[in-house]
Design goal:
three-stranded antiparallel beta sheet; alpha/beta; 14 helices; single chain; globular; five-stranded parallel beta sheet
Length: 400
């Protein structure tokens, strides 16, 4: 019997040896080649000098060795020196700004109203937080931007540019997923193939960047304070440079429950529960955010709008790893804008007002936080309207 066990163990060892050799060899090769995510690479300038007096967007890569290119920013090429009489608008943020592309609609709206040439610089970097937006604001001012528009906050807890957001110990399944270059490479290839077959897939969904960190309440309060300080720093920079600044609150999908919700149930199970069962379970376990979210939707459907909306808003604030903006984020943007005398676009309210039952969902958003084309047109139109009003006021004052 013992001999059979030894033989079986030798067979398993013999069978697994090639797999182990391939895995170790693959890990070593990918690490040597530089296949790893380096957040410090995202702190380089978005624009760099090119030939013939132009600036163009940098190529952002996963590592300084530049083994795998990543489409972190919108390709752009503009004159290094702003042409006389041109209004230069800088859009600052993360993937939501990235998805605006070159924002030709915004440029045309301003051009048509003011009669002036317009250049739009898109500084949107996929997955980055407000820490990176401060750097973008400095760069925008160095490039002589006349107007700075800030639309950021979705990545306050999931920023690619902040290592604290994705620190995972290198053991256990989560550690393997985060640290294994072979797993990252496989997901990278799968993501590329998926986007080739479905171009509508958002280009920032590379799974090997997935953050795993969850936050205590104290850590969340610290992140909120840092977000507020970043907005205040941007305000100070623009005020010192005497440049116009516009903040915007963020639209987010309230019909889609948070990805991290602490529930033992699947969404389909929760949908199948009666309202009484949801209420009874929530009394036993008030931290079950999936159940609380569904209960909020049920309350709204029953006509109890105030309590329903309040329950839903609580869910996104209470999530251990908020995956989109929430009421706290928008309140901070609103407060900083009011105290610093900055113009505010209420992006969330714009989307909320035209959504059924005032619940932003798939009509204007692609996923948890990214506006679709219709939603982006609404946001861009409002930003353009405010810029045009400000420009006309400034011109009238100058004429006097």
């Amino acid at each position: 019997m013992t001999g059979r066990r030894v033989s079986r163990a030798r067979f398993v060892l013999f069978a697994l040896t090639p797999v182990a050799v391939l895995a170790v060899g693959g890990e070593s090769a990918l690490r040597i080649c530089g296949f790893r995510f380096n957040p410090h690479d995202l702190n380089r300038p978005v624009f760099e000098r090119s030939s013939a007096g132009y600036i163009e967007t940098s190529d952002f890569f996963t590592d300084e060795t530049r083994f795998v290119p990543s489409p972190f920013c919108v390709p752009q090429r503009l004159p290094a020196i702003k042409p006389p009489g041109t209004t230069r608008v800088a859009l600052l943020g993360a993937s939501s700004v990235y998805l605006l592309g070159t924002a030709e609609d915004l440029a045309e709206q301003i051009r048509r109203t003011t009669g002036k040439p317009v250049e739009v610089l898109n500084f949107g970097l996929l997955g980055c937080g407000s820490d990176r937006v401060v750097l973008a604001a400095r760069e925008a001012l160095e490039l002589d931007a006349d107007i700075v528009v800030v639309y950021c906050g979705h990545n306050t807890f999931t920023s690619f540019s902040d290592p604290r957001c994705y620190s995972v110990p290198p053991f256990g399944l989560r550690g393997v997923v985060r640290h294994s270059r072979v797993v990252q490479a496989a997901w990278y290839v799968a993501d590329r193939v998926q986007r080739q077959h479905n171009p509508a897939v958002h280009p920032g969904t590379q799974n090997f960047f997935a953050q795993q960190k969850t936050y205590s309440e104290a850590e969340k309060q610290q992140r909120y304070r840092e977000f507020e300080e970043h907005l205040r720093e941007i305000a100070r920079l623009c005020q010192r440079a005497r440049r116009r600044l516009i903040f915007s609150t963020l639209a987010y999908n309230v019909l889609l429950p948070p990805y991290v919700h602490g529930s033992r149930f699947e969404l389909s199970q929760v949908k199948g529960m009666s309202t009484n069962a949801l209420e009874a379970w929530l009394q036993q376990r008030p931290t079950d955010l999936l159940v609380k979210h569904e209960l909020g939707l049920r309350r709204i459907a029953a006509g109890d709008l105030r309590i329903g909306h309040e329950l839903i808003e609580q869910v996104f604030v209470e999530s251990p790893r908020p995956d989109r903006a929430n009421r706290r984020i928008n309140d901070i943007a609103n407060r900083v804008a009011r105290e610093a005398g900055i113009c505010l676009v209420d992006g969330h309210q714009i989307v909320e007002q035209v959504s059924p039952r005032r619940l932003p969902g798939s009509e204007l958003l692609n996923d948890n936080c990214h506006l679709n084309d219709a939603g982006n047109r609404l946001l861009i139109h409002e930003i353009g309207r405010i810029i045009c009003e400000q420009t006309c006021t400034v011109d009238q004052s100058a004429a006097l």
